[in-house]
Design a protein that fits this description.
Immunoglobulin-like; 6-stranded mixed sheet; 3-stranded antiparallel sheet
Length: about 300
């Protein structure tokens, strides 16, 4: 990890936000190496199966989305560096024949490449060899098919050979978008009462740090059985301004289970707006993927005793 750390330079390394960025960046580089190892010639023949590779790819995908979404203050050059990392993540997925969701991955790859191409044209900058060859391959794929099916994993593999990690020199003031969530007077010994079939309300004490107006925030509430409910946090209706905004939000949860007790997991998520393809939700929730801004909280409920 020392070599990767040497590629990062900040003008002011004292801030917690810069250190948070550094830690996430290093985790991404570590994951990138682990995923890349699955594509080495010696590993192809006795792979541990799709499961491990797919798990690491998903984790890498989440991390690079967090890097792009949870920090603000990037210069154009810094943004290009991160976008190129995202491109590499998608190319790695397309290099493996047995990976799932190839069509979606190709659409995402094309979308991010278009962002990179647009930025480079505005600045009249030259592309890296990796981006140049990837652009040629994408053009070839789009000419012969609409979803990249005509391109072989080997072609994407050749693009990867041209990728090299750039030195990341950060000159600006980096700020981390984050949230704090607290729910008072509740734990496993002191659950909230509920009546099966009737909605419950949860009083959430929230602090938002460095959240800007274009952000779309959602409260995500989930049960162990997979049921998920989202509540939109309308920033226009929140009181306060500045780097930290404190408020209380009463969130409704409508689908209480038929049980004597249950635990609800609650988290605040930020919608990934930079990747404007492949909506994951149509109604009643975010259109695009969420990245968490805080640790998940558990809220305990126990049924009202009728005696």
């Amino acid at each position: 990890m020392k070599d990767e750390l040497a590629t990062l330079k900040f003008d002011s390394l004292g801030s917690d936000d810069a250190l948070a960025f550094t830690l996430l960046y290093l985790r991404i580089i570590k994951l990138l190496v682990e995923v890349w190892e699955h594509l080495l010639p010696g590993k192809r023949s006795y792979s541990n199966g799709m499961g491990e590779f797919e798990f690491k790819l998903r984790k890498l995908d989440r991390r690079v989305k967090e890097l792009m979404s949870k920090f603000v203050g990037f210069s154009v050059e810094e943004e290009l560096n991160i976008l190129e990392l995202i491109l590499v993540t998608y190319v790695l997925r397309l290099c493996k024949v047995e990976t799932i969701c190839v069509n979606i991955t190709f659409k995402r790859l094309t979308s991010i490449y278009s962002c990179v191409e647009s930025i480079l044209k505005e600045r009249s900058d030259s592309s890296t060899n990796f981006v140049v060859e990837l652009g040629k391959l994408l053009h070839e794929c789009q000419t012969t098919s609409i979803n990249g099916a005509s391109c072989s994993p080997l072609q994407f593999d050749r693009c990867l050979e041209l990728f090299s990690l750039k030195k990341f020199v950060f000159h600006g003031t980096i700020r981390q978008l984050k949230a704090e969530l607290s729910i008072s007077n509740n734990d496993s010994l002191h659950p909230f009462p509920f009546v099966s079939g009737l909605p419950v309300s949860i009083s959430c004490e929230i602090t938002l740090h460095n959240i800007i107006s274009k952000c779309k925030l959602w409260l995500r509430m989930s049960l162990d059985d997979g049921l998920v409910q989202y509540v939109f946090l309308d920033l226009d209706n929140l009181v306060g301004s500045g780097d930290a905004r404190n408020f209380v939000f009463v969130a409704p949860f409508y689908r209480t289970p038929k049980a004597n007790s249950f635990t609800l997991k609650v988290c605040i998520g930020l919608e990934c707006l930079f990747e404007n393809v492949c909506p994951v939700q149509r109604y009643g929730g975010p259109k695009y993927e969420l990245v968490p801004l805080c640790k998940e909280k558990q809220v305990y409920f126990s049924i009202v005793n009728k005696d």
